[in-house]
Amino acid sequence: MDITSLYHIYQAHPIVTTDSRHCPQNSIFIALKGASFDGNRFAASALSQGCAYAVIDEPQYAVPGDSRYILVDDCLTTYKELAREHRRQFDIPVLGITGTNGKTTTKELISAVLATKYRVMHTEANFNNDVGVPRTLLRLTADDQIAVVEMGASHPGDIKRLVEYVEPTCGLITNVGRAHLQGFGSFEGVKRTKGELYDYLKASPATQVVWINADSPDLLAMASERGLDKLHRYGTESDDVAVKGEVTGCTPYLSFRWNLRRDDGTRSEWHEVHTHLIGSYNVSNMLAAVSVGLDLGVSEEQVCQALEAYVPTNSRSELRETAHNRLIVDAYNANPSSMMAALRNFVQMDGDHKMVILGDMRELGEVSLQEHQQVVDYLSQQSSIETVWLVGGEFAKARHSFRAFGDVEEVKQAILADPPLGRLILIKGSNSTKLWQLPDIL
Question: Cis peptide leading into 252, omega within 30 of 0?
Fold first, then answer.
């Protein structure tokens, strides 16, 4: 079946599920495959639970004569093509966001700002891969006026494949750093892959604008190499930006101020913003939201109000007060640049009896030992941090005298045996280290 015919079926049954445990009545089940599962095996179950159709790519799972089975060459490709066909029904701005760090937070902030004026459809959680992005696009409805789509990458070509069906009309790369080096091969590989968003926008006649963090020489060089000329710059270091900001406080929440360059070259008055995010490194994410919001017609007052009202709930830069401790929870992801930014910010924070619980930074390949060693070397120089716990096999390979744990379960046992009390604790690590399980027992 071609994608046009399948889209006609989708229009009559506009709910898609890829989970046979969740089969709304009259929905379409698409049988995706993973490392440990084959959705084709659950097609019959999905139909019996109420799905109207099951899209499969293994013919042996179809029942002869049953037109509810739709056979395709590859279910994942079909899922993406169906999402692209749906996206093409909407003549609205589609903002594509990628980057090494901060893309989910930036997506949330931009969406919050734009929502003061528009009906915004944006990526939920961090559904930013080959499966999550189609899921996002298929949520578009006639009520939506703008879409904000996050795109992640861990291998060369990932962004190129995503933009081919997101088809963004404008875009933003938050930053480029040393992450997923095992997949990318090198930092140059990171830049090439993230730069695939710029490649698409340069080639697209519908491109409106690219927002760029002018504090990043790498991003500026990447944009210059591609001849991008519709750049809207924001940053903290240069006056030659449309939106300029500076950090005014971080005790513990980030406060900053920003102003806008007017058409005559003068700058507006400063706007003060007091946020609910931890970390001075979040100022670039905030300025991205300011820049996008202003360019898309949100008032200066609405921008400030939206940023002040935003409260993180996704284990990113959260401050949690428990009965026993104050926690800085940034445990969703970790790479060398985000880890060091979090540590430097933690060192600068006011607070007594500081403690850090750090999990491995995964997927760093050949440079993993070097990067973990740099972290422990930095920690060994910080007299303000009283206690350091390191979790995982990568930290175990580094030279240090800190307390080490094999996994999060060992950490839990240590906490239950001798609970930390009255501490200011930073929790940070790659998602797979599962340190996000710790706040509930601290």
Answer: yes
Q: Facing residues of 259 across strands? A: 244
Q: Of the ranges 58-72, 112-126, 316-330, 398-412, which one carries the lowest mean pLDDT score?
A: 316-330
Task: Please state, rounded to an integer, the average pLDDT across all residues of the chain.
Answer: 94
- CA-wise closest residue to 360 among 302, 433, 272: 433
CB 57 within 8 A of CB 71: yes
Q: Are strands 120-122 and 69-71 parallel, antiparallel or unpaired?
A: unpaired
Q: Where are the beta strands (DSSP E) in 163-295?
A: 170-173, 210-213, 231-235, 243-250, 253-260, 271-278
Of 231, 343, 338, 244, whose CA–CA distance to 284 is shortest?
244
For 150, what's the count of Cα atoms within 13 Å in the CB-facing half-sphere? 24
pLDDT for 369-388, tens place per residue?
999 999 999 999 999 999 99
Helix axes 300-309, 103-114, angle to 10 degrees: 130
Token pair 């890829």: residue = 18
Q: How many CB atoms lie within 10 A of CB 125?
A: 11
Distance (Å, rounded) from C-alpha 162 to C-alpha 90? 18
379 in Cβ contact with 399 (< 8 Å): no
Torsion, Cα of 117, 123, 124, 128 (10° steps):
-160
Q: What is the pLDDT of residues 254-281, one digit of tens each?
A: 999 999 999 898 999 999 999 999 889 8
Q: Taking the model in full, what pTM does it have?
A: 0.89
Q: Which residues of 285-309 are buried (b: 16+ CB within 10 A; e: fewer)?
A: bbbbbbbbbbebebebebbbbbbee
Query: H or E segment at 56?
Result: strand 53-56
DSSP state of 63: P
314, pLDDT greater than 70:
no
Q: For position 298, what pLDDT does the model report? A: 98
CB-count burial class (<10 Å; 0-12, 13-18, 19+) for 183: middle
Give the DSSP H or E segment for 329: strand 326-330
Phi, psi of 327 (to 5 degrees): -120, 135
Residue 316 confidence (pLDDT) above 80: no
Distance of alpha carbon 111 from alpha carbon 292, whole angstroms = 10
Alpha carbon distance 205, 384 (integer Å): 53
Distances from the Cα of 431 to the Cαs of 176, 333, 360, in angstroms?
19, 5, 9
